[in-house]
């Protein structure tokens, strides 16, 4: 490829000094920006940590237990260095970040450069050299921690856009490792990716992996087009022959789609739990038993199309197509990246809209939109899914959207309607959803009305078919598919 590799940067202060790479003992190492645990205030629970909710850790925990696994990631607090610790059969290796690095690497390059750039530039990405320097430095630190934890010939699986340089650094440090990478968010077309001043280094970083996974076939194609265009890589049958600076072939990197899923078993089990079913009835009751409950569940992020959804809903109230007596919209918006400017602005927009709409349409008895700026435990989420007749997923761009899959998994009785943006990865699998373009407000309004009035036979036919898809493709299968492909390719290379 001939691209100069990002040079090793000296650590700036004691708190963030990188460990020297040494061989470790783990045969399987996962690397992600965040460790899969949250700190709990309650001192009674296991060492003050609780496993984070979410499919990834559920899928990987059994692999970890079986293969003496380790997880490398940031523990969420700035300026704090923690020793590795053990939690529920996993070795957790915390990577320290200074306050400056949280600002430059996490809020800056990851979430104000890459996140908007990779999501169709819905918000304008910012390009700052100081952010890029911090991104390189922190990626190097994660790679060194992973190298230090890995046994000889171990498998390392790097997760997501915050760590795209880790595969390359890791291969330099430990050529014996088998390296996988999975991008949880979209990969943009080369016409947009071209804006990034460091586009060659990012592609080169990813090509350090043996297998690079994406959510959709389109993301995979975008990446391969960028590899060809910006690095002159020769791409054949989704494979790139990665060259050393002297022109010899170092390895073959393969790019493929692996659409992620959810822990279907857990959601189904909760959806059948009598206490959760009772709670879902209580929610309906508390809302005054309206004919229809509509639900939106999102991180408060500008990619999720929350303002588009509110605009459509507000117009339906104005038109009289929906009344607050007959319908209630619950919008859960969980707090996210609150120190990033575009997220602060979005919160103001959303809360302004909700306030205006409720001011205009509420009655003493009924509220047009129940807006909840909280996160909830999975049990309460499943109760909401059971209470909701219509689920609204109107993302402008989304790598996958697991909320859509969770709603489908929770609907054990095949009722309910899913309105789903075609700009989500989930739309590839949930073809029987009512698909919408969230920019088309008239189309969105018509589809919401259609969802509310969907004949029982039709909604049940659609839900049955979506459930069949989801039940056959849970997150365990996703991780098995990825890791099997990674190993199969290893055998092929060796043979
Ligand atoms: C998306 C990303 C994840 C990220 C999550 C929450 O799903 O793909 O990598 O962890 O958002 O965002 P946060 O910035 O709070 O980690």
TrEMBL record:
GO biological process: trehalose biosynthetic process
Annotated GO MF terms: alpha,alpha-trehalose-phosphate synthase (UDP-forming) activity
CDD domains: GT20_TPS (cd03788)
One Pfam family this sequence matches: Glyco_transf_20
Gene3D superfamilies the record matches: Glycogen Phosphorylase B
Region annotated Disordered, chain positions: 1-25
PANTHER family from the UniProt entry: BCDNA.GH08860, TREHALOSE-6-PHOSPHATE SYNTHASE
Family, as annotated: Belongs to the glycosyltransferase 20 family.
Entry protein name: Trehalose-6-phosphate synthase
Species lineage: Bacteria, Bacillati, Actinomycetota, Actinomycetes, Micrococcales
């Amino acid at each position: 490829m001939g691209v100069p590799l990002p040079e090793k940067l000296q650590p700036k202060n004691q708190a963030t000094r990188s460990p020297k790479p040494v061989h470790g003992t783990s045969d399987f190492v996962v690397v992600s920006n965040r460790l899969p645990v949250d700190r709990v205030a309650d001192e009674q629970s296991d060492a003050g940590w609780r496993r984070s909710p979410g499919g990834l850790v559920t899928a990987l925990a059994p692999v970890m237990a079986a293969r003496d696994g380790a997880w490398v990631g940031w523990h969420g607090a700035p300026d704090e260095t923690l020793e590795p610790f053990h939690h529920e059969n996993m070795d957790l290796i915390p990577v320290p970040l200074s306050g400056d690095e949280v600002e430059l690497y996490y809020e800056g390059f990851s979430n104000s450069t890459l996140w908007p750039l990779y999501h169709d530039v819905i918000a304008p990405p910012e390009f700052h050299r100081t952010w890029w320097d911090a991104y390189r430095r922190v990626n190097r630190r994660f790679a060194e921690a992973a190298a230090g934890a890995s046994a000889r010939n171990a498998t390392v699986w790097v997760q997501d856009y915050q760590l795209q340089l880790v595969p390359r650094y890791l291969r330099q440090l430990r050529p014996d490792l088998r390296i996988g990478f999975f991008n949880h968010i979209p990969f943009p077309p080369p016409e947009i990716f071209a804006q990034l001043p460091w586009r060659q280094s990012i592609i080169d970083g990813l090509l350090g992996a043996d297998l690079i996974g994406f959510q959709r076939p389109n993301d995979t194609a975008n990446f391969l087009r960028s590899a060809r265009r910006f690095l002159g890589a020769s791409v054949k049958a989704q494979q790139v022959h990665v060259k050393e600076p002297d022109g010899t072939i170092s390895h073959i990197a393969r790019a493929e789609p692996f659409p992620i899923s959810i822990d279907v078993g857990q959601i189904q089990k909760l959806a059948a739990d009598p206490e959760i079913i009772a709670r879902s009835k209580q929610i309906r009751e508390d809302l005054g038993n309206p004919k229809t409950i509509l639900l939106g569940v999102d991180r408060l992020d500008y990619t999720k199309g929350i303002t588009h959804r509110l605009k459509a809903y507000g117009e339906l109230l104005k038109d009289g197509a929906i009344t607050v007596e007959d319908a209630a919209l619950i919008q859960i918006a969980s707090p996210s990246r609150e120190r990033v400017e575009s997220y602060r602005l979005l919160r103001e927009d959303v809360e302004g809209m909700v306030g205006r709409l409720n001011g205009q349409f509420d009655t003493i008895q009924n509220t047009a939109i129940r807006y909840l700026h909280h996160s909830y435990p999975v049990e309460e989420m499943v109760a909401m899914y059971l209470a909701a007749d219509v689920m609204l997923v109107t993302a402008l761009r989304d790598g996958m959207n697991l909320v859509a899959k969770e709603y489908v998994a929770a609907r054990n009785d095949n009722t309910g309607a899913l309105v789903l943006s075609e700009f989500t990865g989930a739309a590839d699998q949930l073809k029987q959803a009512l698909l919408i373009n969230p920019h088309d407000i008239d189309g969105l309004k018509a589809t919401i009305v259609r969802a509310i009035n969907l004949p029982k036979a039709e909604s049940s036919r659609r839900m049955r078919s979506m459930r069949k898809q989801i039940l056959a493709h849970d997150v365990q299968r996703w991780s098995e598919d990825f890791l099997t492909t990674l190993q199969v390719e290893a055998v092929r290379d060796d043979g």
